[in-house]
């Protein structure tokens, strides 16, 4: 069968972006074959470049979100810098921005303005709280939005709420921006017109809060924080093993409980004991249930426990840390790792989760240096050497 082209081959994206939400969205587009032109500040670029230096001297957030892009460094406080963005956008299919509230509109780079000038353009505004309402101008860093969206209230232990260990609000907004762009491109293919796409971090994360939100609105009480345990199922928790590991198991129905009681705990009578025979009874007697499971697994090594649980048909998982994820046997067996180029040399990176059998593999291009493609992009919009030299001399480009 003839290999299919990447689905966004031929699509050009211009992104005035920073931090995580917009860069992660546009990286998904690059992974599907789009050309992504990243507009950065001349004084340090995307401030995510400075978050840390863990990735061989580069910032781990930046490496994660910005492979496969071309970087142009512009001073958008200078009208000549804004003019370059407008020239790039005139030939683009998609424009994405996540500047501070009101900044894009002041520059004429908001979705409504750009789409009025370029009817085929799909233009995305990503914000913290949306363009209107009392929170519109409020600063919206990831953890702040996690708090406002209630995620922190349902994550943690009974005595301590905690934030998610990943930038959940940024990622949620990024993925809705990504899917919004794809939907708008499909619509353009039918109607010939692009149009604005609007995504806020609060809206995106509030949607992800659907289960606890509906539980609270319609049931009257929010789900309790239970650490790694499940609020309404038992046993469903992580249990220590003899070798210092932890194994999480989940019993989804009473048949599984009977198998667990017989084949793992070694007490088949618990399968019909009224204190444990039903999920409601096990939740009511959670401490006793957990003690029975904990005692059984506590005498086993983690690998031994997993084998025994799987043999009994009980869902389970190793509680892995991040380094163990990097060495996960399933990722290795499916050959999910690649190397991408960067200013500090090749870096290990995962293939994107979207796999298109029969098509080309995601290009996974290099992580760009700040302004690496400035001169080539200025030439592409028709600038002569003398004009480029003047912009460099005046500090408009880098």
Radius of gyration: 26 Å
Cα separation of the termini: 46 Å
Instruction: Supply the number of helical segments.
Output: 17
Strand content: 15-25%
Question: What characteristic shape results from the CA principal axes?
Answer: elongated
Q: Indicate the structural class.
A: alpha/beta
Percent helix range: 25-40%
Helix and strand run: EHEHEHEHHEHEEHEHHEEHHHHEHHEEHH
Question: Poorly predicted ranges (pLDDT <50, ≥5 residues)?
Answer: none
Mean pLDDT: 96
Structure summary, number of beta strands: 13
Largest sheet: 6 strands, parallel
Strand line-up in the sheet with most strands = 3-2-1-4-5-8
Quick overview of this protein structure:
The protein is an alpha/beta fold and 398 residues long. It has 17 helices and 13 strands. It has helices spanning 21-31, 60-66, 79-90, 103-107, 111-117, 142-148, 168-191, 201-208, 210-219, 254-265, 279-284, 286-298, 302-311, 322-326, 329-333, 374-380, 385-393; strands spanning 12-16, 35-41, 69-74, 94-97, 122-127, 156-157, 160-161, 195-200, 236-240, 246-250, 315-318, 337-340, 347-350.
Textual characterization of the structure:
This protein has 398 residues and is α/β, with parallel strands linked by helices. 40% of the residues lie in helices and 15% in strands. Strand 12 and strand 13 (347-350) form a beta hairpin. Helix 1 packs across helix 2 and helix 1 (21-31) crosses helix 7. The chain is elongated. The model has no long low-confidence stretch (mean pLDDT 96).
């Amino acid at each position: 069968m003839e290999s299919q082209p990447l689905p966004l081959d031929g699509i050009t994206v211009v992104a005035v972006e920073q931090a995580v939400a917009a860069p992660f969205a546009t990286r998904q587009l690059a992974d599907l074959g789009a050309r992504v032109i990243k507009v950065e500040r001349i004084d340090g670029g995307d401030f995510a470049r400075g978050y840390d230096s863990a990735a061989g001297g580069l910032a781990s957030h930046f490496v994660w979100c910005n492979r496969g892009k071309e970087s142009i460094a512009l001073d958008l406080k200078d009208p000549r810098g804004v003019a370059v963005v407008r020239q790039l956008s005139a030939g683009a299919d998609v424009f994405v921005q996540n500047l501070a509230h009101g900044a894009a509109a002041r520059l004429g780079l908001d979705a409504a303005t750009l789409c009025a000038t370029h009817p085929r353009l799909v233009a995305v505004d990503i914000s913290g709280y949306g363009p209107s309402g009392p929170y519109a101008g409020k600063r919206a860093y990831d953890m702040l939005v996690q708090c406002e969206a209630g995620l922190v209230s349902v994550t943690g232990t009974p005595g301590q709420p905690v934030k998610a260990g990943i930038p959940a609000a940024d990622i949620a907004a990024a993925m809705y921006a990504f899917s919004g762009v794809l939907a708008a491109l499909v619509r353009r293919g039918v109607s010939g017109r692009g149009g604005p796409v609007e995504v806020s971090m609060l809206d995106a994360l509030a949607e992800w809060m659907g289960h606890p939100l509906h539980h609270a609105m319609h049931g009257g009480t929010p789900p309790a924080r239970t650490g790694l345990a499940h609020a309404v199922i038992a046993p469903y928790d992580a249990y220590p093993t003899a070798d210092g590991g932890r194994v999480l198991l989940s019993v989804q129905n009473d048949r599984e409980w009977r198998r667990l009681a017989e084949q793992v705990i070694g007490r088949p009578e618990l399968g019909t004991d009224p204190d444990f025979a039903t999920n409601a009874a096990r939740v009511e007697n959670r401490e006793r249930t957990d003690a029975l499971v904990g005692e059984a697994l506590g005498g086993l090594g983690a690998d031994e426990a997993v084998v025994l649980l799987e043999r009994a048909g009980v869902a389970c998982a190793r509680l892995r840390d991040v380094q163990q994820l990097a060495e996960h046997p399933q990722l290795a067996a499916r050959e999910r790792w690649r190397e991408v180029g960067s200013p500090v040399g090749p870096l290990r990176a995962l293939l994107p989760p979207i796999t298109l059998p029969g098509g080309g593999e995601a290009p996974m291009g290099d992580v760009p240096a700040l302004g690496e493609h400035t001169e080539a992009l200025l030439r592409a919009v028709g600038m002569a050497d003398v004009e480029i030299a003047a912009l460099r001399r005046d500090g408009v480009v880098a």
